Amino acid sequence: MRWKTSISKVKEGEVYVRGKKLLELVGKVSFTEALYLVIKGETPKKEQVHLLDAVLVSAINHGLEAPTGYVPRIAASVGNSVSSALAAGVLMVGDYHGGAVEGAMRKFYSNKPAEEIVKEVVAKKERMPGYGHKLYKSTDPRAQKILELIPESKYTKLAVEIQKELKKQTGKDLPLNIDGAMAAALCELGFDSIQGKAFFALARLPSMMANIEEELKNEKPYRRLDNEDIEYSN
Fold first, then answer.
1. Quick check: pTM over 0.85?
2. Residue 78 DSSP label
3. Is residue 213 part of a domain?
4. d(CA 56, CA 61)
5. Does 232 map to a domain?
6. Terminus-to-terminus CA distance in the chain, angstroms?
7. CA distance 231 to 224
């Protein structure tokens, strides 16, 4: 079986990443610079690193109540390895938790005007990815912080226009949320929409690590629901 890749190679015992010697990167570039290089195959500019850093920090944590918060702890509490608990947390990134980044990127990349994008979503009775939030009813402050970094981006302008169109066509005030803002920033950086869920998962990994360690050090095995938290229907 033959494999083709332009990402990395080992030549005469030395590792190359996107044509650059790995050891020459160590201690010279940040993790964000390195992941940009690995994924996109090019060295990022200073402003691109700053924006990608902001994107990752903005989604690093949103409370223990989020599935990516408590699920890794549950997995660790029953005796799984740290890597297995992390995998359980990553599996919580789905269409309704972090997955809207990918969907919103596809909409932003469609080259269609906001009016048409929303019209299609409404006609299909779909949910517009990247808009609306259970806690933030009018404005998601995390999203606004990201947009402030790229106010002149065509994707920022489109994201804002879509919010207005949603209000106009549905009568609902659905604010751009962190997933939508991340999508706009990742589009501005030129990443493929297929990486949407991956970036959300990557941003949450540090919090998953912290939650797993806290669970293993401070709690007794194993974590389970209390009877009073369960409502039987029969």
1. yes
2. T
3. yes
4. 10
5. no
6. 55
7. 15
Give how many domains the chain has, as a whole number: 2
- Cα(53)–Cα(49) distance, integer angstroms: 6
Beta carbons of 163 and 176 less than 8 angstroms apart: yes
Q: Are residues 114 and 11 in the same domain?
A: no
C-alpha atoms less than 13 angstroms from C-alpha of 159 in its C-beta half-sphere: 35
- Structural domain boundaries, residue 31: 1-44
Sole residue written with tokens 């964000």: 32
Residue type present at position 99: G
**Same domain? 168 vs 67:** yes
| 180 plus 73 within the same structural domain | yes
Structure tokens at 190: 């030129």
213 and 169 both lie in a single domain: yes
Position 145 in a domain: yes
pLDDT tens digit at each of 234 positions of the chain: 999 999 999 999 999 999 999 999 999 999 999 999 999 999 999 999 999 999 999 999 988 989 999 999 999 999 999 999 999 999 999 988 888 999 999 999 999 999 999 999 999 998 999 998 777 777 889 999 999 999 999 999 999 999 999 999 999 889 999 999 999 999 999 999 999 999 999 999 999 999 999 999 999 999 888 888 899 987
Does 51 map to a domain? yes
